[in-house]
Write a structure and sequence with these properties.
- The chain is 48% helix and 14% strand.
- The chain contains six helices and seven strands.
- With 194 residues, the protein is α/β, with parallel strands linked by helices.
- The protein has a domain at 43-164: Rossmann fold.
- The protein is elongated, with a radius of gyration of 20 Å.
- The strands form two sheets. Strands 5-2-1-6-7 form a five-stranded parallel β-sheet, sandwiched between helices.
Length: 194
């Protein structure tokens, strides 16, 4: 009899999880996202790691809208000896950006925290007091936390590029599924040292 009751409880819990899965999976995806409303800042910072050009093109749009006059483009990775930021700036210029908007900042960083640690002193050296950080949707909450922690006294806003992460239904899209899991793992493995 006890085994039958346990089986019944397990079936009820499984049914409840299945029926409510769109709600709690949606909430899990939304926990990764924290997008600030863009407003005028001293500079835009485009984080490295974008292979599609979405982040740099978001920066182009922000400069055209008058949000900031300058864009500092992170260039963490080298591709066949070419800094990622140079590839991003070249792409932006070919697609409507002006070369004088951009500064390529090449540094060796392996995490969002390291990227912020290397870029923040350069921003301070330039007298920048407010920034808009552009990254992908699923990375915004973690990036916001890290950059605000690394840049005390600086106004830090974070916004998302027009990437493919389907935050409300991420489990239905293969690329969003991979992005969700990648970001969750990064959050867990960097606990306390984001």
């Amino acid at each position: 009899m006890k085994a039958l009751r346990r089986l019944g409880v397990l079936a009820a819990v499984s049914a409840a999880a299945w029926i409510t899965h769109p709600w709690w999976l949606r909430q899990a995806g939304l926990m990764l996202v924290h997008v600030d409303e863009p407003e005028n800042v001293d500079a835009i910072v485009v984080l490295a790691g974008d292979w599609s050009g979405e982040r740099i093109m978001k920066a182009v749009d922000m400069v055209k809208r008058g949000i900031a006059p300058r864009v500092l483009v992170s260039g963490v990775t080298l591709h066949f000896g070419i800094p990622e930021c140079k590839l991003a700036v070249d792409f932006a210029v070919r697609n409507g950006g002006s070369p004088e908007w951009f500064d390529c900042f090449v540094e060796a960083a392996h995490s969002t925290r390291e990227e912020a640690e290397k870029i923040v002193p350069e921003l301070k050296r330039r007298g920048v007091g407010s920034i808009l950080v552009i990254t992908n949707d699923a990375h915004t909450a973690r990036a916001r936390y890290v950059w605000r922690k690394q840049a005390p006294g600086m106004k830090v806003l974070v916004t998302a590029s027009n990437d493919e992460f389907q935050r409300g239904v991420w489990w239905r899209d293969r690329e969003s599924w991979k992005e969700f899991h990648n970001e969750v793992v990064k959050n867990l493995t960097s606990w306390g040292d984001l």
